[in-house]
Amino acid sequence: MAEITAVNVEKKSVIPQEILYPFILVTSLFALWGFANDVTNPMVAAFKQIMLISHFESSLVQFAFYGGYCVMAIPAALFIKRFTYKSGILVGLALYSIGALLFIPSSHLMAFWAFLISYFILTCGLSFLETSANPYVLAMGPEENATRRLNFSQAFNPIGSLTGMFVAQQLILARLDKTSEAEREILQQTAPQQFQALQVHDLSVLRGPYVAIGLIVLIFFLVFLISKLPRSKGEEDRQLNVGKTLRRLWANKKYTEGVIAQTFYVGAQIMCWTFIIQYAMNELGMAKETAQGYNIIAMSIFCTSRFICTYLLKYFSPGGLLMSLAIGGFALILGTIFFHGMVGLYCLIAVSACMSLMFPTIYGIALKGLGDDAKLGAAGLIMAIGGGSIMPPLQAAIMDMSDFHLGLFSISSTRISFVLPMLCFVVIVVFGFRTSKVHGHTY
What is the model's pTM? Predict the structure, then answer.
């Protein structure tokens, strides 16, 4: 097999011609996990209605979904180190497909816990995919423009996300039975068979897109199985050396700070996107499918901003641009909290423009210069996605509280809950500043 060199002083192309096909193939994975992420976020509101559970309980969808990332990241990295990036991709696609197809028995069981297990298995697969694809893309060409290359691949992630959001809106939320939660609670007590019929209908609607994506992912598995992917530099070294690698990573402040920043970034992202629906419903009385339309607008802004910010990286330092965008995100979340009605919703939507650059840039900064340690280092950054499993339930618990009275005025629990993503942006501001001023010589 041809070897991908991490640094090639003669070829400065972001995507060298000789790896164009494998680059396109691997980049397609970014859209696949984008779909899974964003077809799932609106399901927090859907399960709340179908199962008649609290905001906190329904947010356990995110706990299971992003918990899979956290639990499987290190095993995935060790597997990839022992074998190859391609092997990791194949395992990831297999688990993704299995988890999605498990929605068939889960919907027949009509048990919330069964869906949580399905989500967990699905995202164990996504953990393999992200742990494989992100560092593999970084290795596909010159190291000096690796972050730009990863930002380019990541730009296709929101395309999958937009598709997932549209599917959630049109094929799930819009097709759920329109019986309100209050009416369902009455039916649960007075006509349990009718209530169960509503659940059967709604769960069958919810199941369909997941089964479809499970079959599509199975096709991708077959394509990757028969495709030849070039090895990256150092991939022939299959010695694990976990202890030594972890000690080197722990001693690298830029890397450890990157993991912390990524944890808080993912938490902020998932909170903002998951609870746009609840913000629109609770503050403005919108229907779920209408509220999801604003989620789609937010993702469209995110997608457009990703391409713009990738271009801006030619002229601005990654750390400086990251810090500026995090300050913007902080200010917009303040507007979400303190401006009532549509203005607050617009502020929440606009946060997506600031978030667009963050994940791949933090990722690229943290892994820069790690060499073969990047395989295990990537696992730490994928584990950081676990921030999306912990923080949404905390925000949901705040939403379940009564309104907050602050002297002469009060703020709804929905609006005040966005203090959590606001604090997350503070952490990212600090990381961006330290990248520019402290770690600049190493980036």
Answer: 0.79
Boundaries of domain holding 213: 15-226+242-442
CB 123 within 8 A of CB 66: yes
Nearest Cα neighbor of 96 from 274, 219, 206 is 219
pLDDT tens digits for range 1-55: 444 444 344 445 666 666 778 888 888 899 998 899 888 888 988 899 899 998 8
Q: Where residue 401 falls among pLDDT bands split at 50, 70, 90?
A: confident
> CB–CB of 124/71 below 8 Å?
yes
Please name the amino acid found at residue 277: I
Contacts of 260 (CB under 8 A, 6+ apart): 384, 427, 431
For Cα atoms 261, 96, 113, give the angle at the middle one, nearest 5 degrees.
85
Q: Tell me the sheet residues that pair with 409.
A: 406
Task: Give 25-35 pLDDT, tens digit per residue.
Answer: 888 899 998 89
- Is 2 a domain residue? no
Q: Is residue 358 part of a domain?
A: yes
Is residue 7, in this structure, part of any structural domain at all?
no
User: Structurally, how many domains does the chain consist of?
Assistant: 1
Beta strands in 225-325 (DSSP E): 231-232
CA angle 236, 142, 2 (to 5 degrees): 40
SS3 341: coil
Q: At what angle do helices 288-312 and 253-274 cross, to 10 degrees?
A: 150
Q: What is the pLDDT of residues 270-279, one digit of tens each?
A: 999 889 998 9
Q: How far is CA 156 from the centre of its chain?
A: 13
CATH code of the domain covering residue 429 = 1.20.1250.20
Q: Is residue 232 part of a domain?
A: no
